Amino acid sequence: MRSLSLAGIVFALGVSGIACADARPDHFKGEPAETFQEAVANFSAYNEKLAAILAKNTLEPADIVQIHELTYTLENALEKINEEFEDLADTLEEVHVASERLDAAQVRTQGEIYLDTARQVFP
């Protein structure tokens, strides 16, 4: 009986996707990613959850529903990571320009800001 109800959920999700091809229902919020550290932690943890489900030989309807739910957290994390990486690129450009001017103080200040963020992802 349980798999039947989960199949119904998956079917309903599919039908709502067909009916609203351009408008996605926002029925799950996912874990928030208020800070870069939180986004990186969620990204790592939820990628592991996704990998564990995908490692199964057969994906059951419950697995598909679980993947659907966890993608909301992954999307939140990626949105925050992308915002931070845009800022990181700007900071790196400041390091680059300061190095062209031989501005040691600015290279050090902006370089440390750059590394603080970059090392959160790639230690």
SSE layout:
Elements (H helix, E strand, L loop, with lengths): L1 H18 L16 H19 L6 H40 L3 H18 L2
Helix pairs in contact: 1-3, 2-3, 3-4
Derived from helix and strand composition plus strand pairing, the structural class reads mainly alpha
Number of strands: 0
Q: Ranges with pLDDT <50 over ≥5 residues?
A: 1-13, 15-21
Strand content: under 5%
C-alpha Rg, in Å?
A: 21 Å
Distance separating the two termini: 48 Å
Order of helices and strands: HHHH
If you average the pLDDT, what whole number results? 85
Number of domains: 1
Largest sheet: none
Helix content: over 70%
The rough form would be described as: elongated
Number of helices: 4
Account of the 3D structure:
- With 123 residues, the chain is mostly helical.
- It has one domain.
- Helix content is 77%, strand content 0%.
- α1 (2-19) packs across α3 (61-100) and α3 runs antiparallel to α4 (104-121).
- The protein is elongated.
- It starts with a helix and ends with a helix.
- The relative contact order is 0.12.
